[in-house]
Amino acid sequence: MALFTKSDGFRRVPWFSLTEWHQAYKNIYSNNTAEQTEGYKTLLIWKARMPKLPVGVECTLSLIQVCLRDREWVPKINSGEMPMYYENDLCLMYSTTIMRFLNQISNIGHTKQTSLFQIAKQLRIPEWIVNLRHDAAHSHELPAIGLLRMAANMLLTWLHDEYWAAEGQAFEEQLTKESEIIETEDVESQTLIDLVELWMAIGLYIEAGYTSVSDLPDNQLQDTLNELMIQTKKLQDVSLDLCSKISTFLNRKNVTFDKKQILINFLINSIVFLPTSESSKLFTKYSISIDEYTAETQLPLAMIKFWQDFIHMLHEKKMLELLTLKLLEFVNSLNEDNHRRLHAALWINSITQGLIKLEIGQRNAQSLEHSYDEKNKRMTPKLMKRKLREKIHNENPELDNALCFNIMEDIPPMFMDVNFVRDIAFNPNELTIKFLGPLLDLVTPRMEEKNKQSLLQLVCIYTENNIISNDKKSKDDTIYTINDVVAAGNGQLSEDNCHDNEELDKIVELADTKIRNNSWELPSSNYDWNICAFGVLPWQIDSIESLHATNISPRLRCPDAVTNIVPGYVDSKHLSSSSQVDWEKVLRKKQRTKRKKQKGDADVMMNRAMEIVKRKKM
């Protein structure tokens, strides 16, 4: 990137956005005094934001400052409003600016112990400007004002070609590269999603009664399995193989995107994981209404068995906490489908019950190992598993159909955090009661059963899950505001209520929406402020689309009577859109290779599997 010292990682810049940078660029080279003044003000703002500006911006600021001052003073000097010796001040300002310019660019790249003439030749700066700098620094007289103006305009032209135009092109290339990186990440993330969708499709075919690959009605799915080098014939083995491939992909270290986040987001958006009322037919024989299904406290057994291996893998990959947090967020989102929200709540319940089962299993495993050690008997893993299953069945039969986790894995700390469960209990909704009980059984320190039941009953009352029998209106009436109270009382309010209403009116008057400060104004429309980065307003756009081509059209000029040069006005014919300097050699830049994007059809095959399962269930 021309005239900009590179460094690894992020880099602080003084401009607020690419739009602001481009507007300053456009103003500086507009050949219009008013617009150039605006551009100069913008550069001063950048200087205030970050005193150490990029060399190209710093040099432009100095040159445009003296050019604007020249155009302001010369008419006044010619008319006698200012004394003639102000022209000498202008010469001194020009000379200082040119010296600073050459000194600053001499530090670009690897130019130590190199003469200024050699540096200027390498950067395609005329030799006579270097001589002008030496005359200004060492001669008894300053160079003529005409020469200084000509040098300033040539340096502005040079800055346009080597910084502003080159930087704009670099911005565009960088944005293109970022989009290609995003595309590459999309390819890799799509590969992960394709594997999950293939696993889901195979599972759905197993649910529909298919047992072998050759029996599959989808030829494309068979071809895809062959491409993945999956040679097994049984669908159950294919499912395990795909799950293993997903696990291997999650172990990869050479990917730049967040694998876990992408996978969890995909699950949350999947109607196989969180079914709608229509897709719930995949795991139940009969379609039931949301009111009937709300009474359920467990997921369908077929659904738990379908996802058992996958949830087991998520536990081994330390992803249960992230999944549960996403499910909680989904449960608390009132904009989502109620049927899917209910499934999210039941998934939290199932995961928590599985962890309770794991905790009991770990506790019993220790006692079993101890008893066998005392008898000098050997406990095999298979025997351990059978003994634990029998013990849990006898002591906790309600956990027979709960998820099974690896007994060697730990329980995620979040589920035992009392602060985590407290936040859930303090902010309940109508679905919180579906999973709060099992969470209270996991939290440490353990809560007494009496206190637990009291808390659950309180949450039921708070969320209207347990209607008081003698309150006839509590079920039918919704009370949110004073108007709702009036409507519920047939328009009648007691004197106390009327008094409270008057007090409420006073409060409302103090909290109206009247704007009393000219610094604030209401937005013209509704915006999603949650997606805005700090310091960015919703309507501010910062993208390559805002980088329009520079349109330079010279306007009214006031040329110098002798040299016919307008300071700060450059001829658009001499401007170039590309750099004339070999910056690759100066800055020793490195190039990177580009990768191409591909796309799979796993989602299509999964949809076919869903349709076949639905037909089988009918």
Automatic annotation (TrEMBL):
Pfam families: Las1. GO terms for molecular function: endonuclease activity. GO terms for cellular component: Las1 complex; preribosome, large subunit precursor. InterPro entries: Las1. GO terms for biological process: maturation of 5.8S rRNA; maturation of LSU-rRNA. This is LAS1-like protein. It comes from Microctonus hyperodae (Parasitoid wasp).
